[in-house]
Amino acid sequence: MAELVVSMEQRMAVAFAACADGPVNVSAFCAEQGISRQTFYVYRRRFQAEGIQGLLPRSRRPVRSPSSTAKAMAERVVAVHDQLHDQGWDAGARSVRDRMLGQGLAAPSDRTIHRILAVHGRVKASPKKRRRDSYRRFEAAAPNGMWQLDGTKRALADGVVVCILRVIDDHSRLLLATRVAPSENMADTWALLETAMTRHGRPALLLHDGSVAFSGVRQGRGQVTDLQWQLRRLGVHQVVSSPHHPQTCGKKERDWQPLHRWLDAHPAPATIADLQRLVDAYDAVFNTERPHQGIGRVTPAQRYQGTAKAEPGAAEQLPPLTFHGEVTAGRTGRVPLGPGGYSITLGHAWVGATLTVLRHDLDAVIFHGSDLIRRVQINPQVKIQPSGLTPGRPPRTAVTSAMS
Question: How far apart are CA 343 and CA 221, in angstroms?
Fold first, then answer.
């Protein structure tokens, strides 16, 4: 305790007294300096033995710490952390402990692991990080009660950017299906949902943002896409999150972070098929091997299988989609075919022409005035319907005659 109350000036006074030629009245000296006789003799002995170094503050660390973590255990903790980090997984204290227990190793507590990682420079300080318990969280009560759908961009080895589409279960965080596509489009989104429903059954509710590949809500009042109609027929209710509010789909947004870190730890794939194989491998480990900290540190597969699935609503018997309206052919003669984003190219002869489109479900006819121009059987998997035209711009005489 002397280290806490004895100033450097008092210690230097003790040194000067020790160097004095004549005898020193210790009691009077201590009373004048405000220190005890014991303190005086301690610092005089140190000064005589070590010189000025003996007056400097000393560590109060005990000589022995029987309860401290063994060096071998600390080295093992750091090694597991580095292994997780190199593989692209989360490497915090909880993840390290779960990995050690999964490998059958003895593991200290989360706090002890955190202190070990901090001592070895493996922890990035984040004093402004928001406390986890300050967030308002929601979660579906049962598996298949709510799915979340989203897409993220990823570059291939040649720099081409593709889209990773994924749907997860809100209750268990299970990765239900992942699909790599050239872009975030409706056809690949429906293929993804079909895969997920084949594996796990239908959800009661599907939550996603306002992407036009998922819903027609952002396209204007009354716009209903083919994807929406398909889901309604299956009894799946869709919910679109508010614009500029990513917290609603927070589980899905957070889900992308470990995936991108994991992909960064592997060589960049050359093709969409290569990237698909990578994300499939990630999904298998994430679902069955990696305890999830947000669901009680069990794997998503364990939680998904631990509760009875929620049942979707009754399938709706919806009337077929109908559309009747005038449209204008675009710069290449492309004619929109009503809701769903479908179109067909009629050729340069019809650029700027006003046409009438009648559509019943997937059957459409195109009129110019009272003349029937084209009958189209829409393929729902293709946005731009095949025109059957010969590639290239037709002669000017052909254009003039078509418009006359």
Answer: 20
Confidence of residue 241 (pLDDT cuts 50, 70, 90): confident
d(CA 168, CA 149) in angstroms, rounded, equals 7
Could you tell me which residues come within 8 angstroms of residue 33 by beta carbon, excluding any fewer than 6 positions away?
10, 13, 14, 40
Residue with tokens 């040194």: 15
Query: What does the CA dihedral 16, 22, 23, 26 come to, rounded to 10 degrees?
Result: -30
Q: Is the dihedral of CA 246, 230, 189, 224 positive or negative?
A: negative
pLDDT class of 247 with cuts at 50, 70, 90 = confident
Which structure tokens are listed for 115? Answer: 């202190």
Q: How many degrees, rounded to 5, is the angle at CA 402 between CA 398 and CA 404?
A: 120
Per-residue CA distances from 14 to 18, 39, 110, 148, 207 (Å): 6, 9, 48, 74, 76
Q: Identify the residue whose tokens are 């056809």.
A: 187
For 346: left if phi > 0, alpha if psi spans -120 to 50, otherwise beta; the answer is alpha
Tokens of 104: 């059958």
As beta bridge partners, residue 291 has none
Structure tokens at 144: 């298949």
- pTM exceeding the 0.85 threshold for the entire prediction: no
For residue 22, the model assigns a pLDDT of 84
Q: 156 in the Ramachandran plot: left (φ > 0), alpha (ψ -120 to 50) or beta? A: beta
CA–CA distance, 238 with 223 (Å, rounded to integer): 14
Residue 226 has pLDDT above 80, yes or no: no
The radius of gyration computed from the CA coordinates of the chain, to the nearest angstrom, equals 36
